[in-house]
Design goal:
With 365 residues, the protein is of the alpha/beta class. Helix content is 28%, strand content 19%.
Amino acid sequence: MTISLRLLPGLLMAGAIIAAPLIASPAAIAADEVNGDAVAEKYAALLERDYVYPETGTKYAAALRAGVKAGRYKALSGEALARAIDADIDAVAPDGHLRLRVPDAVRPTGGASGPAPGPRPQKVPIEQAGWIAPGIAFIRFNVFPNDAGVTAQAAKFMADHADAKAIIFDIRSHGGGGLEQMDVMFPWIFDKKTRLVTMATRASVDAEGGSPIAGIPSLHVVKGDAGLVTREHWITPNADNRLRDAKIYVLTSGATGSAAEHFSLAMKHTGRGVLVGSATGGANHFGRGEDLGGGYGAFIPVGRTYDPATGKDWEGDGVQPDIAVAPADALVRVLTELGVAPAEAKTLSDAHMPKWPMERRKPRK
């Protein structure tokens, strides 16, 4: 699920997630020993050991080691190294979470090509939460962080808007995270105990205490495929039934990734929410961030999240909307469907447009 948050060490992602207990990891490279070959070798060892699909992890490792042997990485650093490694990974099998994270110290410094980039901006988890129109509540999530304060905000939003006739969840600019906020919101909108999605973790990772989803109360271990530890995400209704019949809309885009796609699939699979916008970003696999040394990092996928009815996940394809419209027009479509006059709906949409991109992450060039 579980995490974008996708490439920050110690955070999860994708179908879901939280900081996992770390298992013994190939030693990180000391700052004065960092070179392209060392980063690639560390990356290869982690993928071979932990990647959700062992056969693919072995192929990734072989491709990176072939690159080392051919001398493709030795003289590279920063974005040039990232482009070379990412290209070799994608040539084996694209994965929405596999992207080398480059340290700020070796990022481009500007010059003739333009100003030097500043620090990576951090998304505000929750924006514009409140009543957008009479009886219609709105909230935008940009990330689901492992943060008790944000979880409390999410719970308070549901309680404060428990008389809504409709709730609009805007996740068009949501890059990933964990389950905490979902698990305090979903009990308000379901009328019975419901299985949302299924999550499977590589058994060797789980056995060594490295699963990023072990111990989450809403996840229940069930029998699954050999070599995997399978858990189902269940939600139990709370005692307040005011939102049981409220209409639920979820705004999506190509930038909707990872844990936000878990949210989307949960709504779509159960039929509880209507997805409006475009297909989500297609970054399914959950895992944890790893330090490769010298400021380089990688997110290592160790599991996948999928529809329990079909067994299919959304890697590469995304979760498909129920109502397909341009993401920028999704809020207008929902508001007019809820009875707001078109002109007013457009004004409200403009005032609630995400500040962050609403398109798939572009590959490095």
